[in-house]
């Protein structure tokens, strides 16, 4: 063999073919984390939030001597340590999967979830005087705000396969994370303005509603737009309608924020009622457009979660109707805490919690082991949560001062909720353990 033209044969180097290296397929980092976060957050909801809620509703223990502090601590534990951690953990999973992006690193996810979960616990200890140091309230609020900002940073940095001019869907998930950050920052300001251990009612209302109407609902819509067509056999909502609903929901939440009268700023009861009606109308319009209630008549064969999601969505319709009716039919501008709490629990216990159990039928199977462990227990959790909702709402709608019978009904609702959430936590924890065990194999 002759050397190529103008090449010195002495410069040629013999190259041996490199040995073939067999590389194990890449596995997502910490695939158990989302299920573990679901279980841990529900544990806080049971041991912290529900206990305080029961005491406040029935007037027992600290719920009698520190009623306002108990109610506010109950709300923050449920909204952030439970719902914030639960939804944010799934937002990390859906965010990368729906955008075909690499999984987020474990340590930042874990740090964010820990901060969002622990912050309200620290604040609750300070607000309830255990130990007697109100500085814990502010420290917990700072921790929560830092975690929520970190979560928003992680979600916003998830790359998208298409520009927003073509596909607006990623803005729903990004918007959800940003609303959580906004709620956490508002909570920080509210705690800094608190009178001792009592947060101003307007400030607390703003934090609660931004969390539910912004963070939670944007996350649900963002996931539903992609998950429901495939799993429930619904039509895909076209981009034009997605833009309309994104603008509609955003405008309604912003209007409620600027008209609430929080942080010492001038508010407007008329605008606040308009915001409630606009938001309720948006929920009903979205329900009609996505057609999720059709599964009540024609559920997907062989998959119980389709029917469960539709049943849970009925709770959202009831919430929207109640929210609009409260805004349009109220005789005065002032709403009692019982009235606001009843409508809010229509969303949380009548819709959100059952939807969590229904969607868990999908995510605990698809994102973890490939099959759902303890499916009947998870379905039983759904049934108990649906049954608890009217028992929690009706007594305080009928009267602001429920008597012995009303308190017994509320206690029954708390018991059903506790058992339902405990079953859901057990299924999530069992799934996380199964994933870890399979990971070690």
Please describe the topology of this protein:
Layout: H1 33-58, H2 62-65, H3 67-98, H4 106-127, H5 135-156, H6 170-192, H7 201-232, H8 239-259, H9 269-290, H10 304-329, H11 337-369, H12 375-398, H13 404-440
Helix pairs in contact: 1-3, 1-4, 1-13, 3-4, 3-5, 3-6, 3-7, 4-5, 5-6, 6-7, 7-8, 8-9, 9-10, 10-11, 11-12, 11-13, 12-13
How would you summarize this macromolecular structure in one to three sentences?
By secondary structure, the protein is mainly α.
Explained architecture:
The protein has 441 residues and is an all-alpha fold. The protein has helices at 33-58, 62-65, 67-98, 106-127, 135-156, 170-192, 201-232, 239-259, 269-290, 304-329, 337-369, 375-398, 404-440. Helix 3 runs parallel beside helix 7 (201-232) and helix 4 runs antiparallel to helix 5 (135-156). The longest helix is centred in the C-terminal third of the chain and has 37 residues, at 404-440.
List the defining traits of the structure above:
single chain; 441 residues; mainly alpha; 13 helices; 73% helix; globular; disordered N terminus
- Strand-and-helix sequence, N→C? HHHHHHHHHHHHH
Shape: globular
How much helix, percentage-wise, in residues? Answer: over 70%
Please give the largest β-sheet: none
Strand fraction equals under 5%
Number of strands: 0
Mean pLDDT over the full residue set: 87
Structural class: mainly alpha
Quote the distance from N terminus to C terminus. Answer: 53 Å
Radius of gyration: 24 Å
Contiguous helical run count: 13
Low-confidence stretches: 1-26
